[in-house]
């Protein structure tokens, strides 16, 4: 069923605030290490001093009052995150610290987008949805038929929901919401006019047959393909799990310690798995260690290795951590580049001692920081290209400000999950146009003679309603915030008639395609429509045409009034399964 959719590997030095730099200068037989533009005077290396002091090959000794620096741990840290050092990157890092230049790779600018994908955009309902969205100023992403119907200003995508390979992921980049009006084609056996006038009268006026791919291919397998194509773009009600649960505690995300040893410090941390450490006695991650300000240090952290493929979190609004606090302030650092020494996007968070708590950090709260300084001219955070995560406990915040909760010594922060979240109230991300009657063909005790033709002829039409119901179930099971609209018989009449919304799949009647389009667009913006499945018809009987007086048009409807009265979880399947409907 074709559809048209409208719609560094260098050894670097780090300061205790989380930034990185490396530089060296030769003065006769002394090599002095610098931190950014500040001389790191306590650490001095001299060949003569080495000969007289018998220094260990693994240590660099500081002046009195300083502690030994473990160069072996320094090298292991670099190798863990970057692999074998690249000499070119070492030179680049050294030169950049002299010049004070910004990171070599500028993060990509995030393009904000609220694009709505309308599938089936050349159909009776889909075409009207596009018109409404366009008039509202909402971009809709969707060649000859489509262009002539939708005009030159709509972005067109030609695809086929029955063919998974035609749904190229690039089509769905930036898609935030979907209105799905794709449906199997039913037409008169004897044929129809080019503009489908017989079809528009309704199947009660002709002998119908399926035209093109079967209901199973369109309504069920096609739905499966569409959900798989858009799932990452539109997001899930429960959010996207980055770390946590039995799956991600087994090593899909690889954490390693990144402490102030990279700038000569002696603080040390580690990441561990506690098999029964969570609040439910399940497994949890643990960030623990000992922090010291010796050798001008003062920070510890754990950082993930770069993800093999960047995480696209553009469907979400922030990152939520579930942690057991210790009364200290920590930082979350999110990176959008595979480069080692580049801008990180940082937010600090406070914890309550001894309590499990959820910490929500909106993407809008992340500050771009490079080498411990905020970068006001940095590109906005790009949630579609997250490459690594880092948790840090540090003496410093940014730009020289101090962490008010900092104390030297041991610490630990258990964290059971890290996930991307959608802000509440959540609105539907997937609005689907189905059909009234989908549960009736198999309903026991139903008098089929009193049912619409599609119910009576379900088997003759390739089990069309049966597969529509299976497609609905795929949406309900997907985790995507959804609304399922089940219109009664569709007409070409104008919108504006009084309406009846119902649940349980019992009503019959008619409703205009234009009205259904308005309902779909209204549902996209309504928290009251989330996880609702409902039937809808007009109060005008079949025997009476509905017309609108242009000089006295009906008032605009507030569809949210109807959505508020609906209940989540009622589908009409209760009659099939012998279970009571939710109240």
From TrEMBL:
Descriptive protein name: NAD(P)-binding domain-containing protein
NAD(P)-binding domain: residues covered: 428-527
A Pfam short name: NAD_binding_10
Domain NADH:ubiquinone oxidoreductase intermediate-associated protein: 255-413
Matching Gene3D superfamilies: Galactose-binding lectin (2.60.120.430), NAD(P)-binding Rossmann-like Domain (3.40.50.720)
